[in-house]
Amino acid sequence: MTKTTLGCEAAVGSLAPSKKRDYRVTNRLQEGKRPIYAVVFNFIDSRYYNVFATVGGNRVTVYQCLEGGVIAVLQSYIDEDKDESFYTVSWACDADGTPLLVAGGINGIIRVIDAGNERIHKSFVGHGDSVNEIRTQALRPSLVLSASKDESVRLWNVQTGICILIFAGAGGHRNEVLSVDFHPSDIYRIASCGMDNTVKIWSMKEFWTYVERSFTWEGLPSQFPTKYVQFPVLIASIHTNYVDCIRWLGDFILSKSVDNEFILWEPKMKEQSPGEGTVDILQKYPVPECDIWFIKLSCDFHYNTAAIGNREGKIFVWELQTSPPSLIARLSHVQSKSPIRQTAMSFDGSTILSCCEDGTIWRWDTVATA
Amino acid sequence: MFQSAVTEDFSCPFCLVKCANYKGLRYHLTSSHDLFHYEFWVTEDYQVVIVSMRTDVCNSEIIPDNVDPKQQMFFYCYKSARRRKPKSLTQNAKYVHPLVLDSAMPANLNELIDNTDCVPESTERDTYSPDASVTGHSFAEPESAQSVPGSDVAPPAMLQFAKTRKLSVERSDPRNRALLQKRQFFHSHRAQPMALEQVFAERDSEDEVDDDVADLEDRRMLDDFVDVSKDEKQMMHLWNSFVRKQRVLADGHIPWACEAFSKLHGPDLVQSPSLLWCWRLFMIKIWNHGLVESRTLNNCNMILEQYQTQHIIDPNPTSITITSDDR
């Protein structure tokens, strides 16, 4: 368990918007009646930076953001199981560059959709319960992580359909895992968080040979020697409630609980004794009325800005890397009243999408400021 | 060619002697009815004796030439007491309720059974004789088997199960295969779906220790020690790994383990005097504890000495290859 070091107070951002950039609503779509839990731009492939995917109910939909606030529907996939409710979707990529959509939800079956050929590519079974989040390794876009209600995180190779590693066991999460993320540059490192109020940082270094083997594996996927990673390199208890979102910002971590804020902190690992270490909370980004769980933040490609919705349908756009953090804009619209589960920032942050509990998708675009 | 008999109170299916318990029955059968060969097999719900002909005691007088005695067998099933049929329903001491499983049973087997003075009724159990239905029931009609007096103590499912279990591989395999093919199986640890070939494979490694991970964790655990030297940690790791892989579980295994360890790691030990010293110290420790005799110590040191001389002759011993499963 980690201790918070004393002596340095975290920098708390002010809620007075800097108005550095301003956004206005350019489009609003009613996708259906069921809540939309995830929206994500394709940052994996530069050809498709303006393409995004949403999931809600048993449906996965692919859209394209066009000029002038236009949103075009490209593809829609419906799971044969009416009771499936997708919670998460992530873009990935095959060896030959075919864009893949990886979606998961209440059934715990991960669907890999070949969006290039408009067909199902693979289905991954293994998780014993709902899948709460899926993330793609940007450096190796065939690798995806899934966080599940079954208290485990799994690493998959979407190319070969192999479950490579399972992060669970003696040192694993003690309740649902709600969020995971790959370290942006250290390919061995991942972080996860969940309903046990902890954040865990894991290293795959000792297991990397298995990851490499998964690419060249010729046997049946189920014969692959899947390994259990039981011990994280750091367990951080910095939140006192569910931790529902985690993102790496360089070697720092952005994490969020239900305390009307998300925080930036530095994990300090002890090389000699894994699992122990300290954390140093650097900055706090207040987000009013953000006290329900399963609200996730999103960042632009370079992690300069982050957008996060709240329970009342408002969006807060934070400049991440300034100290103290500065609020760029607070986006609100009279008709946007429903909780926003997730936002998606475009590559340069000029477009923000939000998906809501009431099944709507909102598009916000920057307006030129004088 | 099967026949099954269900009896109560562990009574012998041949002479109806009550044996009180399964063990008693076992002794009774093997001592009093030595014409047969017995396999005793106990499951949660049933205690079953599989009876087959003993080929060595059969002479041509009893067994006709066209009958392979090995193929002739029948089961003895004991029904657990809590589901036993009330005594009042049992007619005329009918402790035995034979069910003919295979209609192809030749008459001479029944003669054989008769000769051995076993089941009094079984001579009429020939299902292909016209009056077979009077007392005998073909297994081909599992529903009717239910109506046989007392047959509820031997549900058809059990017979089926017993049959599948007992039948030789070549006979039961298609049925087993069909059953295994019907549904999807999953690995117990990884929850990954099993391919059909894995389902049929002999190997089930799911409960085994993952040696790679166990080694890793052992190293990590040893790394935490601050008052132990590097060589000592290495020695501990080698020993822990060896003991785990070779399943050295009891005190009695230690002498063997010491010699095997000396053989396996000898070539490396003799090249590192400090590591060798750790190993010798460890052996002295376990000798102190009385786990090994001085003879074992001597044997181990002889092994090590051998490696040492070889090492001096050839400092890079390529010729010494010990089969090593240590990774």
UniProtKB/TrEMBL annotation, chain A:
Protein name (Swiss-Prot/TrEMBL): Fertilization-independent endosperm protein
Coiled coil: none
Membrane-spanning intervals of the chain: none
WD repeats: 124-166, 170-205
SUPFAM superfamilies (alphabetical): WD40 repeat-like
UniProt record, GO biological process: chromatin organization
Entry similarity comment: Belongs to the WD repeat ESC family.
Key words of the record: Chromatin regulator, Repeat, Transcription, Transcription regulation, WD repeat
Pfam families associated with the record: WD40
TrEMBL record, chain B:
Domain Polycomb protein SUZ12-like zinc finger: 3-56
Name listed for the protein in its UniProt record: Polycomb protein VEFS-Box domain-containing protein
Pfam families: VEFS-Box, Zn_SUZ12
Transmembrane regions listed in the UniProt entry: none
Source domain of life: Eukaryota
Entry keywords, A to Z: Metal-binding, Transcription, Transcription regulation, Zinc, Zinc-finger
Gene Ontology annotations for the cellular component aspect, listed alphabetically: nucleus
InterPro entries linked: Polycomb_protein_VEFS-Box, Znf_SUZ12
Domain Polycomb protein VEFS-Box: 177-296
Family (UniProt): Belongs to the VEFS (VRN2-EMF2-FIS2-SU(Z)12) family.
Keyword match Zinc: yes
Keyword Transcription: yes
CDD domains: VEFS-box_EMF2-like (cd21553)
Chain positions covered by the region annotation Disordered: 118-154
